[in-house]
Amino acid sequence: MFLYFTSVLLVCRLVNGAWYTQSDSHTGTDFLDAFSYQAIPDPTHGRVNYVDATTAASEGLTFTLEDHFILRTDYWSTLDPYGPGRNSVRLQSYEQYTTSVMIFNIWHMPQGCGTWPAVWTVGDDWPNNGEIDILEGINDQGANQATLHTTPGCTMPDWRYQQGYDVLNDCDTFINSNSGCGVKFNDATSYGPTFNGNDGGWYAVERSEAGISVWFWSRYAGTVPQEVEAGYEGVDTDNWVRSRATRYSVSLFDISQGEPSAYFPNTDSCDIASKFGPHNIVINLTLCGDWAGSAYEDSGCPSTCEDFVNNNPGAFEDAYFDFEWLKIYT
């Protein structure tokens, strides 16, 4: 009896859906109005040269195609090993967000050895206002991984209401080489060539007082909420997280399609409100660097990461993002 009621209470507590109204919608050239170009040294020490808006436009590293927004890396230049890295792009939104839902409709993500694409949000004075990695991976190693990075004092419970599985539970940036607390998705179509072979899909992140949730739906999965697929002007995340507490037979191990791929709850061991401040959205593509470079050899990729990036420009022809739209709800 105690286990039954505990299960019900846990499910009720973890289902944190709510109604949100669309505040921003970006399609095609709207991305250029909503994001700034960060022509900065790569903080993750990648073999890239982040360029400004003028260079990105002149080299075709960002452009629109039938209302889709494309962001890519150079795939035609052989690099001087002593010169700058391969030209690429890092964007940051002008607006900051707290309680919100963001939905990214993505048809293609960068793939290939040496690639490290990411869609994420971050606060000022990192890591004091936290970081949420929504889409991230390396060297075509699927599936996707969603991760939080925080100051010390934020750990996740061993069991959570999610479809993915925990990689690490301590979000502290100062331990485990800043691995954060990651959740590996259980859907192979959520990342890399498999994602691209299925024409991508939708990523969504909800941030609320109850916690942070990340969902993924493959393009043809048949389980995509209609309001997500169509980009409605309002969304109710209760439609995505289907509470089963009223069924009178709740099992902690009964995973439904409505559960988030990754869930990071607000608990006594991690106060979301104090660990996460206002966030900008960041979209970037780096190559090699702290993660993709260190795992390069184990990924079955040829040569060394930096040599491969320097000498094989054609290998990066598929290293691009294709966004149909980004919609934000508050």
TrEMBL record:
Keyword Signal: yes
Matches recorded under InterPro entries: Beta-glucanase-like, ConA-like_dom_sf, Glycosyl_Hydrlase_16
Cell membrane is among the record's keywords: no
Domain of life of the source: Eukaryota
Residue span(s) of domain GH16: 17-330
Molecular-function annotations in GO: hydrolase activity, hydrolyzing O-glycosyl compounds
Signal peptide: 1-17
Biological process (GO), any one: glucan catabolic process
Keywords: Signal
Protein name: Laminarinase
Organism: Lentinula raphanica
